[in-house]
Amino acid sequence: MTEDMAVWLYAVTPEPAPAGLTELTGVLGAPVRVVRASGLAAVVSSVSRAEVGEEPLRRNLEDLDWLAATATGHDAVVGAVTSSATAVPVRIATVYHGDDRVRDVLTEHRTAFAATVDLLAGRTEWGVKAYAASNHSDESADVPGDAPAGTSGGAPGDVPGDAPGSGAPGGGQRSGTAYLLRRRAQLRARETADHLAARDADRVHTELGSLAVAVRRHPPQHSRLTGTRANMVLNAAYLVDDARAEHFATAVTELDARGPLLHLYLTGPWPPYSFSRIAEVTT
């Protein structure tokens, strides 16, 4: 490998490496290959330092198009490896100077890799996201009760809070005050709903965690990422024995149907990024 190339790491698996890896195409269109040491196989590609050197990589990671294409290529290789062998997946943009450094990592941390392989064998990562069922963005102004009691919303021009035909002066001011009071009540109701939903999410997480061999609770995602105005109150990963995967999925469905406070969504199966314990060995 020439000096202008670096090594992009996808995953680590025990020897023998799965067949067919060298037929895959990885990030930036680079062929996939294997670096071996200490009974372990690192699945890698050689990529240009012009793309993944320290400064270029920092710049490229801020380019959403580059990031999306690269993440797709990375995940495709990781998915191919983990579907055919127990493997430790590595997060995107784990780059080394050369094959010798990759071999050093495999040798220095073979005990940690072996322990992780033992943890992941015969198990799959599943994700569960929970949203507060009645929670919406504070930008929403429409709430039940906006229409004056005893009406069906009123005719155009009716002033909320004024008796029909009263012509009472100051109606606009009273209308504004009534709106602010309703708005305040709405926000208080949302705060209460958030609290109750978060408490229910803790209970759901505990119950689902009892069905998994390991759990990771990630920070909830902002609505800008989820594409919904509902408030996410649980974003968790569960490492589940493959033999219990159907039971786990059924439990999510039952918990979703049990109470009105949350909507639950099961995602996966995923490569077990949340349980790879790779951060300690990829510095």
Protein described:
This protein is α+β, with helices and mostly antiparallel strands and 283 residues long. The chain is built from eight helices and nine strands. It is 38% helix and 22% strand. The longest helix is centred in the last third of the chain and has 39 residues, at 171-209. The strands form two sheets. Strands 1, 2, 3, 4 and 5 form a five-stranded antiparallel β-sheet that branches. It folds into two domains: 5-121; 125-160 and 169-270, no CATH class. It has helices spanning 49-52, 54-60, 64-82, 99-108, 110-120, 171-209, 223-226, 245-258, and strands at residues 5-14, 33-37, 40-48, 88-89, 95-96, 123-132, 214-217, 232-241, 262-270.
Provide a quick synopsis of the model.
By secondary structure, the chain is an alpha+beta fold.
Write the layout of secondary structure elements.
Layout: E1 5-14, E2 33-37, E3 40-48, H1 49-52, H2 54-60, H3 64-82, E4 88-89, E5 95-96, H4 99-108, H5 110-120, E6 123-132, H6 171-209, E7 214-217, H7 223-226, E8 232-241, H8 245-258, E9 262-270
Antiparallel strand pairs: 1-3, 1-4, 1-5, 2-3, 6-8, 6-9, 7-8
